[in-house]
Design a protein that fits this description.
single chain; 7-stranded mixed beta sheet; globular; AB_hydrolase_fold
Amino acid sequence: MIARVLGSGRPLVALHGFGVDHRIMLPLADAVQDLPWRLVFLDLPWAEAAAVTATATSAVDVAAEVLADIDDHLGDEPFAVIGNSFGGMIARHIAHERRDHVLGIATLASVVHAAHADRAVPERTVLDTEPSVLEAAGDARAAFEEVSVIQDAATYAAFERYVLPGLRGAHPAVMNRIAADYALDALPEERHPEPFTAPALHLFGRQDDVVGYEDGLALRDHYPRGSFVILDGAGHNVHLEQPGITAALIRDWLARIDW
C-alpha cells in the first residue's frame, strides 16, 4: 500500500525490507529533498498500517501486489525504484517487469538468494561499540546489536527513529506466512536475461552478514550502467551506518538518469 508521498517531480518508488516498514527508507528524503523527485513510499504487507487487510502468502504475492499498487498510483508515468534488502529483490523484479517505464534501479543491501544457506556472507564483525549507547538502549539493545556494525550514538539514533517503530509494529502472522515462501519464482536477472541498460546503483555493506555482497557483485554484467559499491564500516543497514556516502551515491545515480 502507498504509505507516504514526499516532494514533487518524477516519482521515485521506495521499498523497504522484511520485518520493518517504510520509515527505514525515510532518510532518502533528506538525500534528495532539493532534487525534482517525488518519493513514493510503500508499506509491505506485514507493516502495521498494511497488515489488517494483507492477503499475501508469498514473495510472489508481494511482488504482484506492489506492481499493482505502482500501476494504480502512477499509471503510465515513468519512474525510478529503490529497494532495501527484501525490498531490493522486489525492486529488481519491478524494474524488469516494467522495464519500458523504469528510469533507473537502485538497491541497498539487496537480497539476491532467498535462502540464507545459499548466500555468500562474511563472518559477523562489529567495528565500533560504545558501551554507554548499548546500556541506554534498553529493550531495543538486542535488535540493535544483532544488525549493527557501528554501535555508536548516531547509528542508534537512526535505528531508533527509522527501524525500531517498524520492527515493533510488524505483524508476526503475516511475516511468518511470507517467510515460509520467501523466494520469487526466479531471479529477475534470470527471468529477463537481456541486460538492464538504465542507470543502476547497487550498494552493499562490507560487513553485511545478512545478505553479503558477493552475490550482488555477480550480477554486474547484467547492469552495463550500474555502479556496484561495497562500503567498509557498514552492515545490513548500510544507508544508516554510512548516510553521507549513501546520499552522495543516490544523488549520483539520479543524476545519471538524465545523461
